[in-house]
Amino acid sequence: MERPNQMSGDDAFGEAETVPGPAQDQRQDKDGRDAHEAAEEVVLEPLADYPHIDLRTGGEPWDKRRAAGKRLREAVPHEAHAALDLPSDRPDPVDLIVGAHEGRQPRLVPLRVARMASSPFAFLRGAAHVMAWDLAHGPRSDINVVMNGDAHISNFGLFGTPQGDVVLDLNDFDEVTIGPWEWDLKRLVASIEVAAREDAVPAEARRQAVMAAVGGYQHTMLDLAPQGSLDVWQQATRADRLDVSGVRIDEASQAVVRKAVEKARKKNNQSLLARVGERRVDGGWRFREDAPILTGVDDETREAVITGLEHYAETLPRERRFMLSRYHVVDVAHRVVGVGSVGTRAYVALLCGNSDQDVLFLQVKEAVRPAHAPYLPGMPEPYASHEGERVIYGQRLLQGVGDPLLGWTTIEDRPFYVRQMKNMKGEIPVSCMTGQPLLYFSWAYGALLARAHARTGDAAAIAGYCGKDRHADLREALADWAHAYGDQNAADYEAFLAAIASGRLEAADDPCL
């Protein structure tokens, strides 16, 4: 992983790094407010829905907001993030997981349990509610963003753009909400630590990977801080041009990307039809049953889903609604997906257009309350009142290039969101992340996360809080935290397995289904 020679962020800004000591912490401005309160007022709010746009009043310049971020570091210094100091009243992690099963389909909960039990990393993926509690009881920078809420390394992936390019970005937004930027970054570094442990990566190499992720975030935020909002919003990372935020991709990582892109390009509506569809007696198409992953639905559910899709169309821009009107639904099935989402209601609809080879698959997925909801104010209205709209709005805000068919609906009084099932979607396999690729993709995912946060958060304030990217104190602190959380996740995983062994939790026989 090579970085080009360049001045560090602060040097490029022409400003020396000065972090006031304790005697300066009590400084007050001319109105009598302490410096911390004054700094908070300068930082931009991440709320991305303004009922009225004021184009007459200017905001605070980026360098002033960056200085405000530096002042916030006085109250919560980097080293405060190093320790995992969990309260003595921390809930039983198994209880938190059981609580997350409320409202899910009972017949599928044992499958979710089995998938989580397959490895410590799978457990971490499914235990978002556990980590949400832990993060909520730790230090906060007081700089909020529209956060992904579940930014582990398997929630970055490949997908196709309307122009046929394949891009790399965040790709799962079920937990999206407004909250501290560092919670997403901590979720990412914890997942790197846990996944690397499974691959028997030595401790020092794991630490370097975690520090690379934080470095990618820190460097990118420093780079974005002075840029115009339009410039930030127009950035996207094409998979065939994967030099991310000042780091050139190495040959080994490029080989991983090339293979993943080739596989992703083969994942389209036609290839999915060949895999999951079969001909009816009358010559039409229907889904091929593959229980418990892909199962048929009764007529009442089928009609409810189709009605829901008709209402979903109203959430699309007019020109895309016109395009969708050229299709009709020929079949609906229930499809189990992921680890954390197992048990929620998730349908897939097969639509045909000009011919039975002109097909479109839409995923219709139930949206549930995000894991961080008990600890944060949440999204503004109207997104807070419809979980499906929250997910889609968050995805549109955070992704550099989005699915043109994103929308939401309500089916049988439950909120759902809708997206394309296969638009060249792919993944960078975690199993390939060893050696140099582990360092590269850790850096890249940290950089992509920073870019997502900069779209709605205050990049200048976050850059000020993070400090110079040549200084390692933030990287060292989060590396300590990630190692500690890896130990905690291992202990929670053992408690989870013990709950299965004792009969407290029921696990399906085959977690790979």
What is this entry, summarized?
Helix content is 42%, strand content 12%. By secondary structure, it is of the alpha+beta class. The strands form 4 sheets. Strands 7-8-9-10-12-11 form a 6-stranded antiparallel beta sheet, with helices on both faces. Strands 3-2-13 form a 3-stranded antiparallel beta sheet. Strands 1-4 form a two-stranded antiparallel sheet.
What does this protein structure show overall?
- The chain has 513 residues and is of the alpha+beta class.
- The chain has 2 domains: 13-263 and 436-501, no CATH class; 269-420, no CATH class.
- Helix content is 42%, strand content 12%.
- It is built from 18 helices and 13 strands.
- It has helices spanning 9-13, 35-42, 62-75, 93-100, 109-116, 120-126, 128-136, 181-198, 203-224, 229-233, 251-265, 269-276, 299-312, 318-324, 387-398, 436-456, 459-466, 473-501; strands at residues 144-147, 156-160, 166-170, 177-180, 277-279, 285-287, 294-296, 328-335, 346-352, 359-366, 407-411, 414-420, 426-427.
- The strands form 4 sheets. A 6-stranded antiparallel beta sheet has the order 7-8-9-10-12-11, sandwiched between helices.
- β11 (407-411) and β12 (414-420) form a beta hairpin.
- α2 (35-42) packs across α3 (62-75), α6 (120-126) packs antiparallel against α8 (181-198) and α8 packs across α18 (473-501).
- The protein is globular.
- It starts with 8 loop residues before the first helix and ends in a 12-residue tail after the last helix.
- Residues 2-27 have low confidence and may be disordered.
- Pfam families: DUF2252.
- This is DUF2252 domain-containing protein.
